[in-house]
Write a structure and sequence with these properties.
0% strand, mainly alpha, rod-shaped, 30 residues
Length: 30
Amino acid sequence: MSIELILLAININLVSFSSYLGDLVGQVFA
């Protein structure tokens, strides 16, 4: 597996996790 694919997978995971975390924080403070 190439480094580019690994970095791309990590980037996608970070984006989805940060958006999920933002939704969770938004619901807590709502």
